[in-house]
């Protein structure tokens, strides 16, 4: 291990130079981006914030997949099976006079088709009447982990069977906190709208495509806070673990950068644009290298 030194320069009436001493190695030292010498963005923090959003997104996606199966079976009067959740997942249903409560149990560990490894329980509840055009889905977690991250929290989703484009749409309010294996913690709270634009009802998870928009707040290690807002809808294709297009604005204190997820290609690349107009290509890991 070697001691690495990085300087953060702040310009103003009083110029302060702060030397941060960080223990790191040459291969894993975080990339620091200076934005007009008023604020800094650390790529590792942006990567971690993206992973936190993925956790929230995947939890809600799983619940909606389970609900959709129930909805299609009830309203189409035909058979339907989704192949997104593998056989290692156990789903139990308790029906009351007005509601359905589902327990989605990943046991000691279960790998999804996209490679994410989950354990524990997602609890999902909603009204029993499946003919309703709008439905509220409630989510909670029990001893839940996502790729080794212990996750707590809840979400509420207002689900519309058919929006103005004829597609299912959900508006979610989510609040999740995670603890990574190294002891680091992070939280993500936000509102997001997700339109299911391709693959609805096909039963094959790999052709599902969503457009996502919204605004959220990520709080990471050392209370680093980022506010993230969609400028151009984010395209999520379940066959790819990365977002393939769309633009986010990311603000920290008084500095705002934009992150462009690309032209539709399934890759880990994103383009950051800084306040001074300069651009930089970064890599988003989403748990896997």
Short description:
By secondary structure, this protein is mainly beta. It has one helix at 43-76; strands at residues 2-10, 16-24, 32-35, 39-42, 90-95, 99-105, 110-111, 117-127, 134-146, 149-160, 169-179, 185-198, 209-219, 225-237, 243-252, 255-263, 269-273, 279-283.
As a percent range, the share of helical residues equals 10-25%
Major β-sheet profile? 14 strands, antiparallel
Number of distinct helices: 1
Overall pLDDT level: 85
Query: Structural class, please?
Result: mainly beta
Provide the succession of SSEs.
EEEEHEEEEEEEEEEEEEE
Number of DSSP strand runs: 18
Which descriptor suits the 3D outline?
globular
Rg over alpha carbons:
21 Å
Which band does the percent of strand residues land in?
A: over 45%
Distance between the termini: 22 Å
Q: List the uncertain runs.
A: 1-39
Summarize the structure in words.
With 289 residues, the protein is mainly β. It contains one helix and 18 strands. The chain is globular. Strands 5, 6, 7, 8, 9, 10, 11, 12, 13, 14, 15, 16, 17 and 18 form a 14-stranded antiparallel beta sheet that branches. The two termini are 22 Å apart.
Give the tags.
single chain, 289 residues, mainly beta, two-stranded antiparallel sheet, 1 helix, 12% helix, 54% strand, disordered N terminus
